[in-house]
Amino acid sequence: MRRKLLFGLGLTALGLFALAAPAAAQEAEEPLAAEDVQVILDNIWILIAAVLVIFMQAGFALVEAGLTRGKNVANIMMKNLMDFSVGVLVFAAFGFAIAFGPGNDFFGTEGWFLNEGTFGEEGFFGTLSLPTYFIFQVAFAATAATIVSGAMAERTKFVSYFIYSAIISAIVYPVVVHWVWGGGWLSQLDTPYTDFAGSGVVHMTGGVAALVGAAFLGPRIGKYGPDGKPRAIPGHSIPFAIIGCLILLIGWFGFNPGSELAADSAVAPIFVTTVLAGVAGAVVAMFVTWFKDGKPDVAMAGNGLLAGLVGITAGCAALNNWWAVVVGALAGVLVVFSVAFFDRIKIDDPVGAISVHGVCGAWGVLAVGLFATDDGLFDGGGGDLLLSQFIGVVAIAAFVAVCMAIVFGVLKATIGLRVDPAEELEGLDVHEHGYPGYGIDVGAGMGEEALVGSMAGGK
């Protein structure tokens, strides 16, 4: 018994020595300086924020799939997967250099293929390393690209969409980024254009591209009746759509607070303005549809949440909490009437992407000029910032519209942009990808006459 006790005490002593030895060695080492610790914290936080933004791809995929028909769900998932996958490759090769490389006031001309000789490991992006900054920025590029998917859903050739996605991530979006975040001309105005996390740079860019794409495609079969009035084409899964909206809300906590590009005391207040604007948009959109149509529309409440988030993205660090609520609430109103407007002019946007990202993105940019705490019009700062914001909205919208008109026009004239009517009616999953997205072809097998007969009257 005594031997066992002595043996146990010996093992315990050895274990304590083994634990104490590394600790003693660590104490002997020189402690990290405070600035070194800050650099580590900044990089870790921005990488976590980048993961949250990348997770938004899942949210976009679910929203789009839920608000469209089950016969196209595999096609939608494929588009969202490729937006990110091809986007990372082309942004690494070309887009990052155009956006952030040295060059002129309009685009970067150096730094192709993430050339460390151009950017260096340290110093070019503050405390952030080149790998950290790239991962964060490529997540934003993928977001801008995937916004377009919903507006062009259920009728676009996959090969044409794939080519579009590569072009916007490689060239179009990076040019806009360079103008604002890469030291370009919009950031050099007498009163610099301000877009903290990208209401204009990311969301309006995607929204304008979505508008051009939907216009070139034309409406889905059955969307408009013989009298020209729009008909509702219900999505196949409201749970998908709302879960997707909530995933996007979570992702936005990387999108906006991450754009501080540091782990500091400004991050938490940005969380607050972000969530206040988002939920205000959801509540107001719900009430607007309730009063307008007699029922609180679930899908539109979800879009109201996204509209509020898009609206506050430009000013999340510049507005106080209650101005953030105002911005989100007005975005909730805007999105409802904007969706109805585009329906009336025969721009068929199955998920409301043009309204959520394009219209509310522009609103978010202008809201900074109105409500910014230091120099907004309503806080005594005069109209200079508002003028710069207006210039930015017009310039970004015009540039993206022209570029996308060229891209979609060339695609339409060459390989074609839209699938055949028979393929559209039967669903894109089998025709474009070889098999249905579900075990049974949900939503397919329904002739157009039956489809139109099953739909409720137009809104």
Task: Give structural attributes.
disordered C terminus; 459 residues; Ammonium transporter fold; mainly alpha; 16 helices; 68% helix; globular
Please give a structural write-up.
The N terminus and C terminus are likely disordered. The longest helix is centred in the N-terminal third of the chain and has 33 residues. The protein is mainly α. The chain is 68% helix and 0% strand. The protein has one domain: Ammonium transporter fold (Orthogonal Bundle).
Briefly characterize the structure:
This protein is mostly helical and 459 residues long. Helix content is 68%, strand content 0%.
CATH class descriptor name: Mainly Alpha
Assess the beta-strand content as a share of residues.
under 5%
* Helical stretch tally: 16
- Report the CATH topology name: Ammonium transporter fold
Q: Mind telling me the C-alpha Rg?
A: 25 Å
CATH homologous superfamily descriptor: Ammonium transporter AmtB like domains
CATH architectural designation: Orthogonal Bundle
* Topology, number of strands: 0
Q: What is the H/E order? A: HHHHHHHHHHHHHHHH
Helical coverage, percent range: 55-70%
Structural class per helix/strand content? mainly alpha
Largest sheet: none
Averaging pLDDT over every residue, what do you get?
Answer: 90
User: Which regions have little confidence, pLDDT < 50, spanning 5+ residues?
Assistant: 1-28, 441-459
Shape: globular
When the domains are counted, the total is 1
| Euclidean distance between termini CA atoms | 87 Å
